[in-house]
Design brief:
- This protein is mainly alpha-helical and 195 residues long.
- It has one domain.
- It contains seven helices and no strands.
Length: 195
């Protein structure tokens, strides 16, 4: 069963990785980096502070926990445990993979930390501000595009992305609810007579 799933994952990767061109290669390579998205992250910080004001500390800490959980689970735990080679490191796929730029940050790719971090950001922002800014749900489309760059560049299988997205979602859920409980405890200590 697992062999069949791995084969389907590999076949889907080869199909999705085949859509490339000299024009899009440098664009995808740029989009997969962190620095082009820094203005977006600054804008999100502004949204959090402008809405939560003095209470923004707990949301910012929830974001920090989300990224910590997402990144460490994918890179610190899953990659060394599963030891699944990235497509661009897989000898059986030599000559079949379109790899542009470099072959990722290490030999192993399961799960994708790009996917875990981006889906973590999309989820935590939706949890924290989605009620006020419904358009933030479009961040999941950004997370899909950001994650797809990893398949396009030949450094992740679709299964790596799906697992990473799940890790990101769970990390955001945990980070948000942990910090919400911390905030409630702080609020109870600070204002014991208020409900």
């Amino acid at each position: 069963m697992m062999d069949k799933i791995a084969q389907l994952d590999q076949d889907l990767f080869l199909f999705l990785n085949s859509f490339h061109s000299d024009f899009f290669d440098p664009i995808m390579f740029t989009l997969t980096k962190t620095w082009p998205w820094v203005p977006m992250y600054i804008f999100f910080t502004y949204l959090i502070i402008s809405h939560y004001k003095k209470e923004s500390w707990w949301v910012l800490m929830a974001v920090g926990l989300t990224i910590l959980f997402a990144d460490q689970t994918a890179s610190g735990l899953m990659k060394p445990y599963f030891e699944r080679l990235r497509p661009c490191h897989e000898p059986l796929l030599e000559g079949l993979v379109h790899n542009f730029g470099y072959c990722g940050g290490g030999k192993f790719g399961f799960a994708s930390s790009h996917a875990s971090n981006s889906f973590g950001v999309a989820t935590i922002m939706t949890l924290a501000l989605g009620f006020r800014h419904p358009w933030l749900k479009w961040l999941f489309a950004w997370a899909v595009v950001f994650s797809y760059t990893r398949i396009y560049l030949g450094v992740h299988y679709p299964g790596d992305i799906i697992a990473g997205a799940l890790v990101g979602f769970l990390s955001a859920w945990a980070g948000y609810h942990i910090m919400k409980k911390v905030r409630d405890k702080v609020y109870q200590v600070k204002y014991p007579n208020k409900q």
